[in-house]
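New here. Your pick:
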Amino acid sequence: MNSSQHSDSSQLLSRIKKIGSTVFADVMDNQNTMDYRVKPVNFLEPLVGRVRTVSVPKGDNLLLHHAIYQAEPNDIIIVNGQSFTGAAYLGELMAGAAEALGIKGIIIDGLVRDKRELRQLNIQIYAKGFSPSGPSKEGPGSFDTTITCAGTIVSPYDFVIADQDGVVVVPQQNVEEIVEKAEKKLAYELNRLETINIYKKQNKQDKSDIEPKWLQDKLKKLNL
C-alpha cells in the first residue's frame, strides 16, 4: 500500500469510526451482521478496521496461530470456528502475543478461555462464550480466504465494525457507497434525537411534533 492509498484508507476508517454497528446494519438491510451471540469479551471502544480471515476445523487453532504471525499491525483477525462449543480457540497466551504484534482485535465464531486475563488486555476479543477446555493444533484450515463467520460472509480486507451491539462486516467493494449511506442515516438519527430532546425540554403536548414523517404513510397502507 503506497502513501496515498494509506491516507485514503485512514480517512475512510476515521469516517467509519464515527458510526455505530446498528447504523451500518440498517443501511445494509440487516445483511452482513454476525450471530447475536458474538459479543465483546473486553470492550474498550468500537473495534473498526480491515480484516484478515481464518478458517479452522472444529476445536483446532493451528491456523489461528499462523494468522497471528502473518497479519500486520492494526489488522483484525476473524475466525470461522463453526460455533464449536467443545473447546476454546484462544486464551491469554495467544491473545497476549497478538497484542504484542500490534493486532487490533480477534473475532471468533466459537469460545475462548482465560476470561479474567483477557479482560486485562488492550487487544479486543469477541467470542460466543467461554470454556476451560483447550484446542488441538493439528490443522488443516485456511488463511486469507473468503469464509463464513457466524452467518456472515467475510473476505480478506473487508471492513468490520464491532461494538457492544454486535459485529457487522462491510464488503470492501461497496465500502464507499455503504459509508455514504451510513453517514446520511446517522445525520437523520441525530436530527431525530435533537427533535425529541427539544420536545422533552419544552414539555410540548402535540405528539405529531416528534412522530416520524414516514409513520402515517406506512399505517395508511394497513388502513390504520
About this structure: The longest helix spans residues 175-201. The chain is about 35% helix and 25% strand. The chain has a mean pLDDT of 95.
